[in-house]
Amino acid sequence: MRISITTLALAVAPAYSQVTATPAEVRAIAKEAYIYGYPLVDSYRIQHDYFVDRSAKEFKAPWNEIANIPRVFTPADTAVQTPNSDTPYSWLGLDLRTEPIVLTLPPIEKGRYFSVQFIDAYTFNFAYLGSRTTGNGGGSYLIAGPNWKGTVPKGVKKVIRSETELVLAVYRTQLFKPDDIDNVKKIQAGYKVQPLSAFTNTPAPKAAPAIDFPKPLTAEEQKTSLEFFNLLNFVLQFAPTVPSEKALMDRFAKIGVGASKTIDVKALSPEVKAAFEQGRADAFVDFADGMKLFDSGKLTSGDVFGTRQFLANNYLYRWLATIGIYGNSKQEAMYPIYAVDSAGQKLDGSHKYKLRLAPGALPPVNAFWSLTMYELPASLLVANPIDRYLINSPMLPQLKRDSDGGVTLLVQNESPGAALESNWLPAPKGPFNAYMRLYWPKESAPNGSWKAPPMVRTQ
């Protein structure tokens, strides 16, 4: 259902904020603010394409209106890094400033996995609906912003509260095989979105002012432009400061970072401008060190996606999560990442690899698992002659088995030949990563007793 938003403009931005810190302080605080703010700014870039810019290739729908995508991702989808191509998506950008929004889910057959992931403006996964958390029986759920104080109406099973006024809801509906898509379309058609007043058939409250959304930076510009900090300031006005971050925001204010503040980037002195840039460079050193932890296996996806409470305000981990932005918390899904082979060498399509799943050692899941290929540095799906971007557990009946009943996946650029092509996951000619996904993992995966098998170079 479409919700109209008034054309009133937000209040005019205040005068430029003053930078009151010394250059040395600016460098230290800018590093901290960049690490803190990158996920907020990167998520804004994506959601501007999805819910604001109707001319954007990736536009989905206006705020508070669900967009069902009755297909899986392909190499043509380029807005989100490391996209999942297992589950057709439905996308919903929630603006909770005027009133709560009620989501109604249809009953879904027991064997089909689905989930609704709620991601706030900070990029925390703050709640879930779906097979794991609420079951497949359907029902209505109220999503409220930080300032709502109303009464919960009859017919609502649960209230979910967000720390921020803008929220992303990501629906995933399992597709068993290509000819199952019509069943997925029927389920998606049953995903209903209503403002609370429409759900209760009562008069709507006065609409919140329309938002004047600034043009986002590109992914590359986020790494080079100091306007990054002004976009962070814009997002922060929809994210009330939580008690644990009050001192942090007081410190950020010394360099002009804070809700609705504006830095006159062009007017910065050469010394202060250099300090901002040095702080950003320092932040990227920390990011690179974090990525090394991923490569060594000391850090996993399960460590960097989750609630604020789970991450305990570890802002570097939150930034590292943007390599697979909007990934699930480990209770919902886990993502063993293959960036190096068993010898510790970076993966590259100029070589051939095998990934053996031994008998009785398939990824432990309540729903399903998959292995998806991404070319680097873009972290996007790989175009290939057989249009295969992943191998997953629903494909097991079609895969060639080893003599002991195990399965060996062949990861390489060229076809291994017709006899083995069923087990082929096409790779690009150059560098790549492969992501394993375990949906609704069994306890042996989150607790670490099951380990993902190594990727072994064979040539």
Descriptive tags:
459 residues; alpha+beta; 20% strand; 6-stranded antiparallel β-sheet
Category by helix and strand content: alpha+beta
Low-confidence stretches: 1-13
Query: What's the total count of β strands?
Result: 19
- Number of helical regions: 8
Q: Report the major sheet.
A: 6 strands, antiparallel
Task: Please outline the helices and strands.
Elements: H1 23-51, E1 67-68, E2 89-95, E3 101-105, E4 114-120, E5 125-130, E6 139-144, E7 156-161, E8 166-173, H2 181-189, E9 192-195, H3 196-200, H4 228-236, H5 246-252, H6 270-296, H7 308-311, H8 315-320, E10 333-334, E11 337-338, E12 353-357, E13 369-375, E14 380-381, E15 390-392, E16 407-412, E17 424-426, E18 432-439, E19 456-457
Provide a descriptive summary of the structure in words.
With 459 residues, the chain is an alpha+beta fold. Helix content is 21%, strand content 20%. The chain is built from 8 helices and 19 strands. The protein has helices spanning 23-51, 181-189, 196-200, 228-236, 246-252, 270-296, 308-311, 315-320, and strands spanning 67-68, 89-95, 101-105, 114-120, 125-130, 139-144, 156-161, 166-173, 192-195, 333-334, 337-338, 353-357, 369-375, 380-381, 390-392, 407-412, 424-426, 432-439, 456-457. The strands form 4 sheets. Strands 10, 11, 13, 14, 15 and 18 form a 6-stranded antiparallel β-sheet that branches. Strands 1-2-8-4-5 form a 5-stranded antiparallel β-sheet. Strands 7-6-3-9 form a 4-stranded mixed β-sheet. The chain starts with 22 loop residues before the first helix and ends with a strand. The relative contact order is 0.16. The model is unreliable at 1-13 (pLDDT under 50).
